[in-house]
Automatic annotation (TrEMBL), chains A, B:
GO terms for molecular function: amino-acid racemase activity. InterPro entries: Asp/Glu/hydantoin_racemase, Asp/Glu_race, Asp_race. SUPFAM superfamilies: Aspartate/glutamate racemase. This is Aspartate racemase. It comes from Knoellia remsis. Gene3D superfamilies: 3.40.50.1860. It holds the Pfam family Asp_Glu_race. The keyword Transcription does not apply. Transmembrane segments: none annotated. The lineage of its organism: Bacteria, Bacillati, Actinomycetota, Actinomycetes, Micrococcales. Keywords: Isomerase. Belongs to the aspartate/glutamate racemases family.
Length: 250, 250
């Protein structure tokens, strides 16, 4: 799809629109829908035409990322994602966002395949944490066991001179239960449990805490958590996407 | 984007997958997100890969449909929609769904531009009503003033030998208030008001009632309306989309 000549409303007179945005999604399909929802909700718009144009490849059949990363499957999702990115580029996408923390492991492979920018959900999230808490030195991480083991958040934090901290084993067990037995299973999770995990990381010295998992983003909305020191990875990516597209953040 | 060789799970052994589905969306952007959500929720899936692959052009900047149809703007959205459909086809879409009742007015123009099938939201909705109520003869219509005036539901009903009925003026005024002052304005609407409009059409002889407006689809979910004789246009389109894609309906 060709790049669209966007007709800006009056408020946009000075802004440069950089659309359509390419969204490499489907991993999982509902996370992509939630990400689109956040982009729309976070855009300051008084009419449809003020919203960001999006080309979305909601490619649910991409091979399982976690299974491949943990070695229980030899179907590599990397080349499929790289091909999807090329297709979004050919279709006119001006840059690409991938609404998935697990897929961050394949970022280099995706970037190699295209000439347009591919945003880094982890880098954007850590940047958002640094912006939210000036003078930040210690960053707490709430994520799946897999993401903690891959150290994507630890490494980015360390590169920025931050000290990463993760939950103790018993709290991490409850984080996994909130993700798998709660959100993924469609069961309610109490606000108290989320608050307890956040308080635990604060007690360990974290001045900001990232939610590095789509299910935790959904949970944050569900329980109405809006503490300024808790930074949501999908929201960080959505904010950067709107900004880079030339949309107006609410 | 090329057609994807879908890897079916065991339960799909006999089914033919017909993907990716092309979604010509953005009119409005949130209706498209809601439509994707319904496709995902209505698909019987035990893992990401059982879901339908979707190519989505969430093209928010398409000129205002209602303004053009009512003559208050001369920016014609028809050629833009036809071009979007061609782009979805070139990108590999196997057929196209347009999650918008107002846009139905441009269906012929969109269909002329492509060789693949473009679903008719109105036709699918009336078919769903006929399937829901065997022996249906009188069809009630809840929609905007504009959709009633365009007579897209009336005409399709008449072609199928059905008698269309619409609300009396005072009830129609409240339907418009539920859509504009309620859903579009983000204000709650009581279940009683929805029930009253439905009861009014039943009293006028309707054996089935179609919700021919995205905001009414959202409202139906919000108030938890699940009467078997009330047929939702977005759900009817979502069901047909899943079926035609080779997905499994829940």
């Amino acid at each position: 799809m060709r790049a669209i000549l966007h007709r800006p409303s009056e408020g946009y007179a000075e802004s440069v629109r950089n659309e359509p945005v390419g969204i490499l999604g489907g991993i999982g399909p509902m996370a992509t829908v939630y990400f689109m929802q956040r982009i729309i909700a976070m855009t300051d718009a008084s009419r449809d035409q003020d919203h960001v144009d999006m080309l979305v490849w909601n490619h649910a059949s991409i091979p399982d990322r976690t299974a491949y990363l943990l070695g229980s499957s030899d179907e590599n999702p990397g080349p499929v994602m790289a091909q999807d990115a090329r297709e979004l580029e050919q279709a006119g996408a001006r840059f690409i966002a991938i609404p998935c923390n697990t897929a961050r492991a394949f970022l280099d492979e995706v970037r190699e395949g295209v000439d347009i920018e591919v945003l880094d959900i982890v880098g954007e999230t850590v940047s958002a944490a640094q912006a939210a808490v000036p003078g930040l030195t210690t960053l707490g991480i709430l994520a799946t066991d897999g993401t903690l083991r891959s150290r994507i958040y630890h490494d980015t934090a360390t590169q920025r001179g931050l000290t990463p901290v993760e939950p103790d084993d018993d709290v991490q067990k409850d984080v996994m239960a909130m993700i798998y037995d709660g959100v993924k299973a469609g069961m309610p999770v109490s606000r108290d449990r989320v608050d307890a995990a956040v308080a635990h990381l604060r007690a360990k010295g974290a001045q900001a805490i990232v939610l590095g998992c789509t299910e935790l983003s959904v949970l944050r909305t569900d329980v109405g958590l809006d503490d300024a020191d808790v930074v949501d990875s999908l929201d960080a990516l959505a904010a950067r996407t709107i900004e880079l597209a030339g949309g107006r953040l609410r």
